[in-house]
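Retry 2 of 3 after timeout on previous attempt. Resubmitting structure tokens to design endpoint.
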């Protein structure tokens, strides 16, 4: 894939601090230039497109739609700042959000920062066990809850900027076209790129895919590979939700975690080749 030549062209856009796009009488999409809503452990991070139901956001501790993460050999980097623009394109509205990749995750217990690389390796190893072994998932989630009660907390802090990811959202009535451009992202030691599409687990609880698999609540798991051609997340009555397709050349994963005062997300996330300069996909909305 080649670098997006339109990446730096913002002459036709209008800068805004937030914007709401109505989908129906009860559903809407909203986006902010700051880190609103500031929920739980990702309060300091930027967010992608957020779903509103009857005027109330249902993102929980989710990242929203079209949220980029860059994993380097030494750190995983998240967006902490952004620039937000909109423009009208006939029957569609286009939103451009430029995410600055300038935050890293840190764990601490009480007032002690756990920034030792060996300690971080242990956390990474536990995370891999959690994702890879279904029979360990509930036990590890219980350990996470215990550590949280003992004062171990995750947070994010500013770090040297590794560039930016430009995300364009073209919003129609029942669909969002998402295009991410990585041409301004630092490439040295870049090992993986992720695109998260998450909302709140308190509102959405059901997974269905084109292979006929249906999972509810904790059975959905965290970061499990999707082998079906398409998958979708919905509320318990299957009336409101969103769906994505499995895209060639990347990995689609499903996930859900809910833990009081700490975790509250559900989503469908892509893992991309770090050599990618452009990635486009569609989000189907219903409700």
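Retry 2 succeeded. Sequence:
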């Amino acid at each position: 894939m080649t670098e997006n030549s339109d990446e730096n062209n913002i002459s036709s856009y209008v800068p805004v601090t937030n914007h709401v796009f109505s989908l129906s009488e009860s559903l809407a999409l909203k986006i902010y230039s700051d880190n609103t809503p500031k929920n739980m452990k990702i309060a300091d991070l930027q967010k992608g497109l957020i779903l509103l139901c009857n005027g109330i956001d249902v993102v929980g501790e989710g990242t929203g739609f079209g949220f980029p993460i860059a994993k380097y050999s030494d750190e995983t980097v998240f967006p902490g700042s952004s620039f937000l623009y909109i423009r009208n394109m006939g029957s569609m509205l286009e939103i451009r959000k430029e995410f600055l990749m300038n935050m890293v995750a840190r764990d601490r217990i009480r007032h002690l920062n756990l920034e030792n690389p060996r300690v971080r390796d242990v956390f990474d190893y536990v995370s891999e066990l959690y994702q890879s072994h279904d029979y360990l998932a509930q036990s590890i989630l219980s350990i996470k809850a215990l550590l949280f009660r003992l004062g171990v907390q995750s947070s994010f802090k500013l770090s040297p900027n590794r560039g930016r990811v430009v995300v364009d959202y073209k919003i129609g009535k029942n669909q969002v076209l998402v295009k991410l451009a990585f041409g301004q992202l630092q490439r040295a030691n870049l090992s993986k790129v992720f695109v998260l599409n998450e909302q709140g687990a308190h509102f959405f609880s059901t997974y269905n895919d084109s292979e006929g698999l249906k999972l509810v609540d904790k059975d959905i798991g965290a970061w499990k590979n999707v082998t079906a051609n398409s998958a979708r997340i919905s509320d318990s009555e299957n009336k409101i939700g969103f769906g994505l397709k499995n895209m060639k050349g990347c990995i689609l994963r499903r996930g859900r975690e809910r833990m009081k005062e700490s975790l509250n997300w559900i989503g469908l996330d892509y893992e991309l080749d770090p050599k990618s300069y452009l990635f486009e996909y569609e989000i189907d909305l219903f409700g």
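Attempt log closed. Helices lie at 117-132, 134-149.
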